[in-house]
Batch of 2 targets.
Target 1
Amino acid sequence: MKLHWSPRSPFVRKVVILLKETGLESRVQLVRSVAAIATPNPAIMADNPLSQIPALVLPGGEPLYDSPVICEYLDSLHDGPRFFPAAGPARWTALRRQALGDGMLSVLLIWRQERMKTPAQQLDSWLQAFALKISTALDRLEDEAPALADSGFDIGHLTLGCTLSYLDYRFADLDWRAGHPQLASWHAGFCLRPSAQATVPDDAAA
Ligand SMILES: N[C@@H](CCC(=O)N[C@@H](CS)C(=O)NCC(=O)O)C(=O)O
């Protein structure tokens, strides 16, 4: 299998952590692919018309995207504990947590684009809306931190770990740990996992 990959993408990081956690890493060839919102990349578009990464190409040539679909597909290929609970309340909680983490990342990616504009180009109402959505999500996650800490490591935990690490990577100035001590403590445990340590986002990487 081929994976359109970047060492900086939090959505790609979800997939790579899952590969490492499940022992599937050797079955996937990583292909460095540059995805930029205003510069569609033909090499990615050959497999994902939206020019977004991650995109996985199966041995028969069929492409899969986006990260929730790729992660659930890969989770069907191993015999270890499932990252996507099969049924019942645990499944819906895991999928909701994944949706929250992915949704926060989507807000953060466009917020970052807005912040890179000159002050004259920036829209204050957008900046305020992004800040409110992220701070509200963090407050909700602080409430949920004890439940996160008590419930293993599934696709919800994996996604939220990547999301909080993306805040450290691109939004360090937000100081998200302030006011969220239980969430910070849970995230510290995520950062200790070998799969997380091997995938820390890095601007200096190729
Ligand atoms: N919902 C997608 C989002 C993927 C995404 O936005 N990836 C970014 C890189 S972190 C990207 O490819 N951006 C380029 C673009 O949107 O054109 C997923 O979960 O895979």
Target 2
Amino acid sequence: MSAATTGTEAEAQTPPGLLTAKTVVITGAGRGIGRDMARAMALSGATVVVADVDLGSAQETAGLLPGTGHLGVACDVTSEESVSALADAATEAAGGIDVWVNNAGITRDRVMRKMSVEDFTAVLQVHVLGAWLGTRAASARMRERGGGSIVNMSSISGKVGNPGQTNYSAAKAGIVGLTKAAAKEVARHGVRVNAIQPGLIDTDMTRAMPPDVLQEKIGEVPLGRIGTVRDVAHAALFLASDLSAYITGTVIEVSGGRHI
Ligand SMILES: NC(=O)c1ccc[n+]([C@@H]2O[C@H](COP(=O)([O-])OP(=O)(O)OC[C@H]3O[C@@H](n4cnc5c(N)ncnc54)[C@H](O)[C@@H]3O)[C@@H](O)[C@H]2O)c1
């Protein structure tokens, strides 16, 4: 967990009240960016349904959130039944879904010469099929209530392409197309669909990089620092809230200006 996850400075920057009386579902929120997003949304007043393929981590996250009524639920985003059950559980427990974040993700990095078809399809399944199933289930429920906000986690990797990530870059670019097409389909029902493309973010993944490689990459960031999980969570909070009421089908880059 990064310093920003628990740091009082980042906590103080999270605006209270933006999501009062709103119910938010976040997939893959058992750890990492999703967990911090759950915390930021809860700090801003939301009831959060924390979903993860790992039930224990989902329940742990839900238990750590400020406020009451949060729920930890098992959900495999690649399963139609599982995603549908998550939408039902959230509707039943909280009376309806206002915000749904498709955040669950995996990587299977390898150069193409060594990448198997299984490595390729596993990544496409979790990101593209997972986001599609989530967007479909959430928008169906939201349109019944007159609106809602869906946030999809893409990546700068889907914009510029990364060697060793042909599967992940394809999936993250696919999420952008899915976001724009879905936004056009459901706008007339008051449902907004947007995407976030994080860049270099302080997570377990970047902490595992050799320090010199990490420093070189940070040197390419115009704002001169690595991003925090809370930087990403705040973009999600903005897209989730009514502050972004006139914004749909867009992609917000949370990259400190790298790769613009
Ligand atoms: N970490 C970064 O720097 C970075 C940068 C750009 C984009 N992203 C994207 O942000 C999202 C979160 O990344 P992270 O770094 O927090 O990842 P992470 O690996 O720390 O967490 C991902 C979570 O998703 C869950 N998950 C995996 N497969 C699942 C499935 N089939 N169903 C439900 N849950 C599943 C995992 O159990 C885990 O809790 C991902 O979509 C990732 O691609 C991350």
